[in-house]
Write a structure and sequence with these properties.
Layout lengths: L1 H6 L7 H15 L4 E11 L6 E6 L4 E6 L1 H4 L11 E11 L4 E11 H20 L16 E6 L4 H13 L4 E6 L7 H15 L4 E6 L13 H9 L4 E5 L7 H5 L2 E2 L3 H8 L3 H39 L2 H43 L2 H44 L1 H6 L4 E3 L17 E5 L4 E5 L3
Parallel strand pairs: 3-5, 6-7, 6-8, 8-9, 9-10
Antiparallel strand pairs: 1-2, 1-4, 2-3, 4-5, 11-12, 12-13
Helix pairs in contact: 5-9, 6-7
């Protein structure tokens, strides 16, 4: 019974091990996290900078935590009762075994929905090419008539008219009234864009309104407005809200301005700058005209001088001067050539005189005498060295000669065959021998 229980025994967990396993299963099942929407409650912000809260709906709730780095990026202060949209990772707090969400991003739910709709429409229109730079048209440098599509009672039109009046009064401005907020605004703006483009009256159109929330500016994020801007036959400038506000109309328009006032400055040039530029052009034109007159006067004088120079008397005088100059050049060239040849002949004569045989014999005779003297001296030195070497070799030879030994009292005995006798047995009894002394020799007979 015990053996059977051991073989079939299941794996046994500790509480921390089980919690860790459940956490890993949750994180593996939802590795990218989830988007979740609900109401905040029990919001707590301790000194650590983390945010702890509960996210709930009518039927359930879940504990949540947002750590300090993510909480620092919040653009609002979370409070109880706020409806939010949150991106979070699903996990488990191991120490207590509590299921929780770790929030990475959080925003008010209503604004978040509009922002998602904005991003989806932006992506779709961008994919269709409505934002392509190739479709953007340049603004006319001096527009004669400008159509401003906006609310006639808003602050935006007052700013636009004020800037246009200050910069350039020559441009005519038509205010094309439309609602810029609410459900009726998008179709009214789109219809006005179509009528203004089809009328052919305007060189450029401005679509504008003042600042506001995302909901206030939503009419300019409408698809039919975007397509009406894209289809316009004249360039369209968009100036909606403040510098930080961006709408779909801004992306489709040929030019986006940060504010209505900035759009007015982009639409027309500055009259004061134009006046200064015209003054510079007028001064430049006067300078160019003066230079052109002076150049023309100089050219007339030059042509007059050329005409006088083409008279027969002048041409004959020039030819005579040219002939005289050529004669002088020829005479100078001949003189110079003769001088060069004379100098070369003198150099050759000097070289020939330097090579005369008589001049070469004198040093050769001196050289022969010198060599003869050196030869005699060398032969005398050589004979003296040979004589000394012979004497030295004679002394050396005499030192080892048998004659030197004889002079010390020794004698050399030869038998009848003139062989040197070295032992007594070499001479037989009665045989005659010859004894060589230092001076003379003896002839002896051996007796028994």
């Amino acid at each position: 019974m015990s053996d059977t229980f051991d073989r079939a025994a299941p794996e046994v967990f500790t509480p921390s091990g089980l919690n860790r396993l459940v956490r890993d299963l949750l994180e593996d099942a939802l590795p990218m996290g989830v988007w979740i929407e609900g109401e905040l409650s029990n919001v707590a912000r301790p000194a650590s900078g983390h945010v702890y809260f509960t996210l709930k709906d009518a039927n359930a709730q879940v504990r949540c935590a947002m750590f300090r780095m993510a909480a620092a990026r919040l653009r609002f202060r979370p409070v109880d009762g706020m409806h939010v949209l949150m991106r979070a990772k699903v996990g488990l707090y191991e120490a207590r075994g509590e299921f929780q969400l770790v929030a990475e991003h959080m925003e008010p739910a209503g604004e978040g929905a509009l922002q998602r709709e904005f991003e989806q429409l932006k992506a779709r229109l961008g994919a269709e090419g409505l934002f392509d730079a190739d479709h953007k048209r340049p603004l006319p440098p001096f527009p004669g008539r400008i159509g401003v599509i906006t609310s006639p009672s808003g602050a935006a039109i007052r700013d636009v008219l004020s800037v246009l009046g200050r910069r350039l009064r020559l441009a005519e401005v038509d205010v094309l009234p439309v609602p810029v907020q609410g459900r009726e605004a998008p179709p009214a703006i789109a219809a006005m864009l179509k009528r203004a483009s089809a009328s052919g009256r305007y060189d450029v159109l401005l679509v504008t309104r003042g600042g506001g929330s995302l909901e206030d500016l939503w009419a300019f994020n409408d698809e039919q407005v975007a397509r009406a801007i894209y289809a316009s036959d004249v360039p369209v400038v968009s100036a909606v809200g403040h510098e930080v506000d961006f709408t779909i109309a801004d992306f489709v328009a040929d030019l986006r301005a940060a504010t209505p006032s900035a759009a007015a400055e982009l639409l027309v040039p500055d009259g004061a700058d134009l006046a200064r530029q015209l003054g510079r052009l007028r001064q430049r034109m006067a300078t160019l005209a003066t230079r052109r007159l002076q150049s023309s006067a100089q050219r007339v004088d030059h042509l007059h001088a050329r005409l006088n120079a083409q008279r027969p008397q002048a041409r004959l005088a020039r030819d005579a001067q040219r002939l005289e100059a050529l004669r002088r050049r020829l005479h100078g060239a001949i003189s110079q050539s003769n001088a060069l040849r004379r100098a070369r002949l003198d150099r050759l004569q000097a070289r020939l005189a330097a090579q005369h045989p008589r001049l070469r014999l004198v040093p050769m005779e001196a050289r022969i005498a010198q060599l003869r003297q050196r030869l005699g001296t060398s032969m005398a030195r050589r004979l003296e060295r040979d004589r000394q070497r012979v004497q030295e070799q004679g002394r050396t030879l005499h030192a080892v000669s048998p004659l030197a030994t004889l002079e010390r009292g020794y004698a050399i005995v030869f038998d009848q065959r003139d062989a040197v006798v070295r032992r007594e047995g070499d001479v037989a009894i009665g045989e005659r021998v010859r004894v060589m002394l230092a001076e003379g020799e003896l002839r002896l007979t051996r007796e028994g």
